[in-house]
Write a structure and sequence with these properties.
By secondary structure, the chain is an all-alpha fold. The chain contains two helices and no strands. The termini are far apart. One of its GO terms (cellular component) is cytoplasm.
Length: about 80
């Protein structure tokens, strides 16, 4: 009985380590994508953001992004 228990515990520990590594990789990838998304939002013009937001379905709320101050003449700087 101890042999079966030890084998199962070893298998479970091994699986836990694999899952922990996958979680670390996914957290890292998520952080990278969040940074990329933030960068793209800051580089996008207000017109591009508006066009993108209009394509989203109404059920998906879009967080407000800070707008770039407008220069005289109505164009963003």
């Amino acid at each position: 009985m101890d042999l079966v228990k030890n084998h199962l515990m070893y298998a479970v520990r091994e699986e836990v380590e694999i899952l922990k590594e996958q979680i670390r990789e996914l957290v890292e990838k998520n952080s990278q994508l969040e940074r990329e998304n933030t960068l793209l939002k800051t580089l996008a013009s207000p017109e591009q953001l508006e066009k993108f937001q209009s394509r989203l379905s109404p059920e998906e709320p879009v967080p407000e992004t800070p707008q770039a101050p407008e220069a005289p003449g109505g164009s963003a700087v």
